Amino acid sequence: MGLRERFHLAELGTDPRREVVAGLTTFAAMAYILVVNPGLLAAAGLDPAGLVTVTALAAAAGTLLMAALTNYPLALAPGMGLNAFFALTVCGSMGVPWQAALGMVFWNGILFLALSLSGIRERIADAIPECLKVGVQAGIGLFIGFIGLRGAGVIVASPATLVTLGDLGEPALLLTIAGIIAAAAMVTVGVRAGILVAILGVSALGLVVPLGEATVTSPPEALVGIPAGIGETFLALDLGYTWRHPWEALPVVLALLFVDLFDTIGTLIGVSRQAGLVDREGRLPRMGRALSADAAATVIGACLGTSTTTSYIESAAGVEAGGRSGLVGVVVAGCFLVALIFAPLIAVIPPQASAAALVVVGASMLGGLAGLDVGDRPALLGAFVTLLAIPLTFSISEGIALGFVVHAGVMALAGRGRELGGLTWILTLLCVAHLVGPALARAL
Q1: Alpha-carbon 127 to chain mean position
Q2: Does an H or E element contain 219, and which?
Q3: The pTM of the whole model exceeds 0.85
Q4: Taking the alpha carbons of 315, 321, 325, 329 in that order, is the dihedral positive or negative?
Q5: pLDDT tens digits, residue range 247-283?
Q6: Torsion over CA of 124, 376, 362 and 312, rounded to 10 degrees?
Q7: By C-alpha distance, which of 28, 8, 1, 59 is closest to 306?
Q8: Where are the domains positioned within the chain?
Q9: 3-state secondary structure of 311
Q10: Which residues of 46-58 are buried (b: 16+ CB within 10 A; e: fewer)?
């Protein structure tokens, strides 16, 4: 069986070349995790050199599993936000040993997998109102666009207005804007590899564009390197800590589960809708398999020695480049494995280059808003709050939770509460508990 048959490329309207370009584009957009994840988890006491290898292996394993089980163009890696929660909150503020924290991640994955295999997670995804699904897709688009602009310095912090425009006199900022324009222009005229070309072009030009006392792109110290071992973290997780300290550990496990659940569902909804993989009812076929793959990837990642592994919104970059099948995932996984050798070269891709991909992809994810019924006020408000809250809270799960609460509240007060199913109301109550629970805990 050839590639075309194995991945049903003809049925999906794609070809091997397009899938390879899409895979390279997705990898280029998320390669930063090879640098960022080790840096964050090192704060918990783990070896950053070994974490580069762990991150690459977890990403490759999770992405291959997703490709094999679903044939979707989704890439996985240790999740941003979740890794910060692991290192700074669980291990830092709470003082939990990193081995025990890995055990909590493991149990989160097991619980997540059980919910997936039982079909509960799929029913949860189906219980999300259509307007919130539209809001999630658009919100993720704004989110990744904001991430790109912030990372490149186009948007900077401001004590007066929270954020403001960066210094347009900075050559690095002008290079970023030029990269965004070039990527958008190439995509507009139908250049499939336009985003990837923009990433590579900005990275190359960055070698001569100044940034402070250095340049945008730092010259690599070497082209290749020997991967570090993972002996310190492999199977080092403490599974018993959760049960020896249940009052401390179980809230962490449940917090990880909630964030992982809604982040994953949100990413699947956003990327699959952009790729046109949903059916006429707006549902994603093989959703159960996708959720199970995501959960299993978390278990594998914990055994290797990293925080929660999850589906990446940067997968949308590959979809924008034409990717439609699991072959994209195979290419991404291969890139992560190759990156173990070429890590010094991959590490120099600057955020100014990634911004070109993230902004253009983010813009493309706003298309779903065209199908929103602007005459349905509760639906319109629910979608608006969701798409606004995701980037402003810097969290997909928080944005979904706020969207649920606002939409359900307006529906109830408008006398239309019965239009929402029982599971939707249960999810709304869970969202309320998630949003106000920490404040109540502090008050008590």
Answers
A1: 22
A2: none
A3: no
A4: negative
A5: 878 878 877 887 778 778 888 888 888 788 777 776 7
A6: 0
A7: 59
A8: 3-143+209-349, 372-444
A9: strand
A10: bbebbbbbbbbbb
